[in-house]
Design a protein that fits this description.
The complex is a heterotetramer, with two copies of chain A (156 residues) and two copies of chain C (83 residues). With 156 residues, chain A is an alpha+beta fold. Chain A contains four helices and ten strands, in the order E-H-E-E-E-E-H-E-E-E-H-E-E-H. In chain A, the strands form three sheets. In chain A, strands 1-6-8-2 form a four-stranded mixed beta sheet, sandwiched between helices. Chain A has a four-stranded antiparallel beta sheet with strand order 7-5-9-10, with no helix packed on it. Chain A has a two-stranded antiparallel sheet with strand order 3-4. Chain A is globular and about 50 Å long. Chain C has a single domain, classed as Beta-grasp domain (Ubiquitin-like (UB roll)), CATH 3.10.20. Chain C is an alpha+beta fold and 83 residues long. The chains are: A alpha+beta (156), C alpha+beta (83).
Amino acid sequence: MTTIRVQQHAFDPGAEINSFCARNPTSGGVATFIGQMRDFRGPTRAEGETVAAMTLEYYPGMAERQLDDLVKQARERWPLDDVLIVHRHGPLVPGDAIVLVAAATAHRSEAFAACEFLMDWLKTQAPFWKKEATSDGATWVEAQASDDARAAKWKK
Amino acid sequence: MTTIRVQQHAFDPGAEINSFCARNPTSGGVATFIGQMRDFRGPTRAEGETVAAMTLEYYPGMAERQLDDLVKQARERWPLDDVLIVHRHGPLVPGDAIVLVAAATAHRSEAFAACEFLMDWLKTQAPFWKKEATSDGATWVEAQASDDARAAKWKK
Amino acid sequence: MTVLYFAWVKEKVGLSEETVSPPAEVSTISDLMDWLSSRSTRHAAAFSDRQLIKAAVDQTHMPHASTLDGAKEVAFFPPVTGG
Amino acid sequence: MTVLYFAWVKEKVGLSEETVSPPAEVSTISDLMDWLSSRSTRHAAAFSDRQLIKAAVDQTHMPHASTLDGAKEVAFFPPVTGG
């Protein structure tokens, strides 16, 4: 089973994770990752600039297709009982969950690996773009080289 | 911040994760792992034996101390904003969450690493013992060599 | 052919989408960026630094040297920053 | 000294806890297992295969060769299976 949802409305990560666990009673382990919107940018809140809001633009159609393809790649690598990806688009406020990835497997090392693989590739392949609203106005977030490096490490 | 709870009563992993995210608004990433009780033992439910119930015995005092020590070790390795460990003891039924580990960090790779490190070490160091009730009676679960191997890979 | 623009590429071009019929000699993504750049100063500005631009052909990431081969939908955007 | 037993070690010994005063020559965890084994056939059965037994001294995992050094609480148990 695979569930991929790209949606504008907020979601409840805890409720999603509970449903995911409940629908996978034969999986011993569930690894999850939640990316949440911070209210600042920069290394720390003290040094950083306040971010009041964010807009996540995305490429409808391609985003879902790309996530689906990433899950297929993950399934070729690890025996996954179930995968869930929820990704927001549109306006977000600090504290909102931006993304949730969950993987259910018999063995925990595979759940961790699949979850991290999906996040690393999602970060560099899924067509979403963040625009942050600060006191200087709204600016597009720049991609980080470290994300490319992390995705590349999964290449065989 | 670190929260370690060893408790007999059931907990709600989703609610725990939501509270954990909410108390870490400046952490961009939260990685979690949930170990849940399966209703069978063996590689698959079809081939396996039904497990109707489980009792988790533990060593009060040492369990909390050992988990605390593992979190200290994790914090020496990675800059963790927050860590949560909840571990059940006593009687459990299939579907129950046995353990929850959550790590909040600025960077996701560190959240994944810390969460997996904690699970791998908890599996081989934290004094808990599972006794499964099957149609043949109650038997103690045997430790797996694969768990020792996974824990060992974190040694520097 | 539908051309889509996202994020700051969209803002620079001033369009989110346009339908174009490039001539036959426009065979690669690079060719298409050259041809689009000739259509307006805004397009030219958007495509001024090609290293910053990623492309997808029919919703699949493709390098700039790829041929268009009857593509129906070509998208241009900055490196992605979701997740 | 308090000796604690857990899981099947407890079931084999038939006790979860006992207070003992081993003689001075009992200096290591191994020595303590020998000495406890001499106290009853149940203890002897529990400690018959030492490879299966783990020990903690004052709530810290310790190898069998470790000295007891005034330990207040020694625990014996099988390899752990939590998580």
